[in-house]
Amino acid sequence: xxxxxxxxxxxxxVLLIGGINSFAAQPSxxxxxxxxxxxxxxxxxKAEDYKKAIELYEGIIQSGWMxxxxxxxxxxxxxxxxxxxxxxLNYERARQLMPRDADLIANNKYAVSQIPNYSxxxxxxxxxxxxxxxxxxxxxxMTWVVFYCFLITGVIFCLGLFLRWSLKVRLxxxxxxxxxxxxxxxxxxxxxxxxxxxxxxxxxxxxKFEPIDDATTYFDLTEGWKVQILKKETGWVKxxxxxxxxGWVKTEAVESI
Amino acid sequence: MKFTFKTAVLILVYxxxxxxxxxxxEDPSFEVTVNTKKVAxxxxxxxxxxxxxxxxxxxxxxxxxxLDIKYMGPSTSISIINGQYxxxxxxxxxxxxxxxxQFRIPALAVNMGGKDLIxxxxxxxVVDAQSDAHGQDNxxxxxxxxxxxxxxxxxxxxxxxxxxxxxxxxxIKLFINGLAVKEIQYPQFEHNGFIVEEYGQPxxxxxxxxxxxxxxxxxxxxxxxxxxxALTLGPVKLDCNLLFENSQHRRLPTTGFDGFFDDSIFDNFxxxxxxxxxxxSSADIPIQVxxxxxxxxxxxxxGAVGQFALEASATPQEVVVGDPVTLRMKILGTGSLQSITMxxxxxxxxxxxxxxxxxxxxxxxxxxxxxxxKSEKITEIPAVTFSYFDPERKSYETLTQGPxxxxxxxxxxxxxxxxxxxxxQSSSSSPAQTQVEESFGRDxxxxxxxxxxxxxxxxxxxxxxxxxxxxxxxxxxxxxLIAVYQRKQKIExxxxxxxxxxxxQKAKQGLETAQKFMMEGKQKEFYDQVxxxxxxxxxxxxxxxxxxxxxGDIEERIKNQAKKKNNPKDSDFTLTQVRxxxxxxxxxxxxxxxxxxxQMKENFEQMEKVxxxxxxxxx
Lengths: 257, 619
Description:
heterodimer; A: SH3 type barrels; five-stranded antiparallel β-sheet; 8 strands; 62% helix; globular; B: Immunoglobulin-like; Immunoglobulin-like; 33 strands
């Protein structure tokens, strides 16, 4: 019986290791082309040919590849090209892939400080801690955390059964892990919602009460403002500003992160 | 019957109660009247539109040039004659004449009760108040042709030509003749390109113009132009209220006392004055503003225009190093103090200066500034200069005061008081110990040299098929482990289940051994093994004591099971097989029977069929 159990555990470990390795396996030739183009773009940037750098970085992304440094460099190129909205947009995209990068944090902060009349609403201590933890990990990292919480919960449960731990110990450990699992699943859900709905204003626009050209303007948005997309109509998008003001803007003025 | 006020009120109420019953019983009629057909300029008359036999909204009176007609409100009256009730509604208007002359209020048309009614036109005469009062044609007295002759506003300046920033006087006068005016506001006017000071206290006096005596209210202020060119000042507007007499006649219920309230005493009793807001405007005046000449302009000229005097002082004249010295400057004159910039004191590095206090007081601008000498080598405070442009002389002037002698003594070591920020100055003149704030530039951090871990766009980890499979595999593994645990628990707790579970495995091993013996032709060993295998198998499957069960026990269990499964034929056959095999085994074991290979094979197959039967029917 125990021999069978050991065989099962061994099989699971092999599967896990194989799975992890499978994520590293990528088509090599396409990646090489993307890497080469990345370096070319870097040369263009250093030569202060920012438009060419933008073109090359955008080319990598359009070919289907992405990474934090690509978006970061693209953001820098847009910033140097005086396109503040696009710069912040790409910084936000980079932040989703490398949220703890100090250079990215500094550049994003500096770019945001260039937005005229931009102010963040006051947040409570809890909100700040919540946001900080939410933005500390990428979606994939959070997925791994959820997975490991899930794995540990199962392992503890099974070990408790076979090693005959007391019910109280099993209950505490499993409950604790379940709580961690649920909390991180919740965070993951919020991250995915933000990833789908968050957007940046890329050109100065006015937010109107209705999705009509002649409607009354509610408030103005300059490029760089971060908004949340609520709804889409033909040619219009309903957005919510950080201070919870809601209005309709033209589709071409906003781009999803 | 004595007529009292209380009686009149009772009658009025009584009549009003009957109003609904009689209102529609009359033929509608319409009448336009005025209280007087001759009125003085400055007074008003009352126009009354009376409707009987019906109700209607107040009609719009056509505009009449020279008359200002305003609606005052409705008035309702009732009358009772020989028990017949009648009511009427009067709409009252005030007619205020704007000029002297003859005027006609045209005929008015209304529709009442489906009937078109037209009134008669009314002619009125407006005369000048003074000629009317005296009742004679005075050739020397001027006759006001309009209200503007009786009240008007004038605007004057002391100069028609001035320099930029030159302060000139402005006088606004309100002339009033033969009118009662109340609540006169301060004049307002557009003054683009001018700075206007606050008004002084207004003056009031009388003045005769063209034989007419006017009451005059005079407002004085000063202005200064801020830009050169041909500018226009005004017009000035002044708001006030005219009081005019407006007598009223009210029709009271006629109960046989019609003329009672028509007495002239009561006319005067009920007449009163009404307020009429008016805005009086003056003409505008042109002013030519000249730019200041460029030639001869001193370097320290700061824009002061006028005639000024400068006073300055520095006290005390003897101090210790670190003690304060107060510098006081006073500029007074005829020019605009607002445009004056006080002279800056250039005291050099030897003094520490504090922010000056500047104030305007008594027509002068005063500056007070504290300076602290840092060295005992100081002997004086430099002179101060003030330059201005004199518009009368048309030249720049410079006033100088000082220098002011100052004796500065060395501070004693025992002095407790020390001025913050000072230390003893050494001959090597060490740099001042001030903290210089370092300023840092801001820009973005440079790009990254490496692309990092490339990944496919828009693909998250949880969308990876292998990840999903891994999760399900994990779930499967846990499910399997739980099933294993539960089986283990059952085996440990349920003996019947455990025996039944392991019986086929043991039987299989037994069959393999028996087959081996059969192939080798070892009859005794074969039948021993068969006997052992079958007994252990049946004991485990049927939960019997393997050492002590009989064929009867087996028969009973088989028959019960056959009833449940409803296959008695099969069970009988199996029972026969079991008996045969066991008999053969006993025959060989105890009777030393000698059986052929075929018989051994047949018995082996029978045993297999028995085991098969039980495996199929006993779960």
